[in-house]
Design a protein that fits this description.
alpha+beta; 5 helices; 8-stranded antiparallel sheet; single chain; 8 strands
């Protein structure tokens, strides 16, 4: 990951919470060529020592390369967006603000029991806020039995963690406020979240 010093994020709590809040990751590994899949990946443990886990379908072209000890890369994406130079007091270069965490990992394949436990946690995580949640144990047993052999779960042990938040560090407060206002004016969730991140980084209000 290319990271200028002023954009680095090294705080373990920040990284842990970022991954937890942005679980839909890009899963990259080396097969006969570089292969990538977009999958939910959950985190467990502590900010100082955590483990990640996910699964893919056996129909996925990545599947045949899965094995214990395989190196892979997980990319977690935060809000991002284009920033026009017209938003500044003075002419400057347009840019793109964003945040991301890259985690290099080594894989360990899950047992069937571990896979089931992981699926229970995955479903519980995303069903808890639903009006009428459907949990793993609510699924028809024959459906589960048909589905489980078609997916493979894996643990991801981090070997390297890098984080970045490029949020107009080094700009004066007037330009930061202007960028925030223009992002909000787009009236889309991604831009609004980016504006929120920008203000949080600079300790400012809209």
């Amino acid at each position: 990951m290319f990271r200028q010093k002023k954009y680095l994020k090294k705080d373990s709590q920040y990284i842990y919470e970022f991954i937890d809040h942005h679980p839909f990751a890009t899963f990259v590994l080396q097969g006969e060529e570089l292969l990538a899949t977009h999958i939910p990946v959950l985190i467990k443990g502590t900010p100082e020592k955590f483990q990640l886990y996910g699964h893919i379908a056996e129909a996925n072209e990545q599947y045949k390369f899965l094995k214990d000890g395989l190196e892979a890369l997980l990319i977690f994406h935060g809000a991002h967006g284009y920033v026009s130079s017209s938003w500044y007091k003075d002419i400057n270069i347009s840019t793109w603000d964003y945040s991301a965490v890259h985690v290099n990992v080594k894989l360990k394949l899950q047992t069937r029991e571990e896979l089931e436990q992981s699926l229970q946690k995955l479903i519980a995580r995303f069903e808890k806020d639903q009006k009428c949640p459907i949990h793993y144990e609510d699924l028809p047993k024959d459906m589960v039995e048909d589905h489980l052999p078609l997916i493979t779960g894996f643990w991801c042990e981090p070997t390297k963690v890098q984080a970045i938040a490029k949020l107009h560090q080094g700009f004066d407060k007037d330009d930061v406020h202007s960028v925030s206002r223009h992002l909000e004016a787009r009236q889309d969730p991604l831009s609004s979240k980016l504006s929120e991140n920008l203000n949080k980084e600079h300790g400012t209000d809209h």
